[in-house]
Amino acid sequence: MARLVMKFGGTSVATVERIKNAARHVKREFDAGNQVAVVVSAMSGKTNELVAWCKEASSVYDQAEYDTVVASGEQVTSGLMAIVLQEMGLPARSWQGWQIPLYGSDAHGSARIEGVDGAGILAGFDRNREIAVCSGFQGINPRSHRIVTLGRGGSDTSAVALAAGLKADRCDIYTDVDGVYTTDPRIVPKARRMDKVSFEEMLEMASLGSKVLQVRSVEIAMVQRVPTYVRSSFDDPENPNPGTLICDEDDIVEQQIVTGIAFSRDEAQITLRRVADKPGVAAAIFGPLADANINVDMIIQVVSDDQATTDITFTVPTADYERAKGLLESKHETIAYQTLQGATDVVKISAIGVGMRSHAGVAARAFRALAEKGINIRAITTSEIKFSVLIDAAYTELAVRTLHSLYGLDAA
Ligand code: ADP
Ligand code: ASP
Ligand code: MG
């Protein structure tokens, strides 16, 4: 007997018919004698609709009320899943975030999980192996007692945190692909499914744009050592594939130098031209951005040719682009730049692999390959197990496919 958490994403619960199919996977695990907690997302498209309604209601909506609205999508699917399971003759009930309770910080819209109290769900397991159908994405703040949500894609994080809280043997993330691929299979048909991927690489892939898992879910899986699988809800429930296991680097026998390519359209570029080249300038630019909670990612400072001024280029999340521009324009006199230029039609392409720690020249090969395709690189960053380049968005697919082939990742 094992204890499992099974999470079903938006496309897997998009209709009552799909919920019935997902329920067959749950039944298989229940019939095998396991204790099962299920985590569900809202039906696909529902959260977007709820977000749009908030924006329509007010351009400056209260974040706590936003959470009240957007958390409702998961309430519907948890209730429907419980009804479907009961209809199949299984003991099941729904649990909302506040009922579990799953505690979240007061950062409405992107709360961090502070803890999960699994006592009620465990009591149900002991009583009659009752299946706990939990609403993903939502929790309650223990101080304000308000509903909080965990940021887009947050049901993955609910599932892994619940698995940790219940001391589950495994967390299965059921989605519309049958595992983690070397890159997004929607962009590169030759992408290959991996049997295993290390926590570190998955963490980089998720934070660099592979939205198959929310970044925080991977963090929790890594820190709490939760064996986590990504697998397909569209497999035959009687004969499913195991999917991709996220695990320790040491458990992977055959390591590639580069394991995956990620891309993110969620970046915007800002360039300040002819900034005074003197101590304190970087602080004058990046201090206010940090104070405004704007994350700066890539930074390039050009060597000054006149010894007096320099150009500084950096990237910010697209969602913060207008705010960052406005802020820098308001500091025009203090920072003393000549012009501010911006671009949102850019994309960040990244290559990830723990093998980069021990191999030199991995990024250089990419720069050459991109140049041969006529793709201009606007900015570069590197760290121990990844490098990223910023390029024009029009070249996204070409660049991803070029790097995917370059590092031998294409399926035969
Ligand atoms: P869910 O609704 O189940 O949470 P998501 O849409 O959030 O599903 O995540 C699954 C999607 O992630 C896939 O359909 C795929 O297009 C995308 N994706 C991006 N990068 C990868 C990758 N490296 N491997 C697998 N899927 C990826
Ligand atoms: N329904 C939420 C979203 O669309 C959470 C999730 O699906 O993981 O972001
Ligand atoms: Mg998702």
Automatic annotation (TrEMBL):
It catalyses: L-aspartate + ATP = 4-phospho-L-aspartate + ADP. Its EC number is 2.7.2.4. It comes from the Bacteria. Signal peptide: none annotated. Gene3D superfamilies: Acetylglutamate kinase-like (3.40.1160.10), VC0802-like (3.30.2130.10). InterPro entries: AceGlu_kinase-like_sf (IPR036393), ACT-like_dom_sf (IPR045865), ACT_Aspartokinase (IPR054352), ACT_dom (IPR002912), AKii-LysC-BS (IPR041740), Asp/Glu/Uridylate_kinase (IPR001048), Asp_kin_monofn (IPR005260), Asp_kinase (IPR001341). GO terms for molecular function: aspartate kinase activity. Residues 270-354 form the ACT domain. Pathway: Amino-acid biosynthesis; L-methionine biosynthesis via de novo pathway; L-homoserine from L-aspartate: step 1/3; Amino-acid biosynthesis; L-lysine biosynthesis via DAP pathway; (S)-tetrahydrodipicolinate from L-aspartate: step 1/4; Amino-acid biosynthesis; L-threonine biosynthesis; L-threonine from L-aspartate: step 1/5. Pfam families: AA_kinase, ACT, ACT_9. Keywords: Amino-acid biosynthesis, ATP-binding, Kinase, Lysine biosynthesis, Nucleotide-binding, Transferase. Belongs to the aspartokinase family. This is Aspartokinase. The lineage of its organism: Bacteria, Pseudomonadati, Pseudomonadota, Alphaproteobacteria, Hyphomicrobiales.
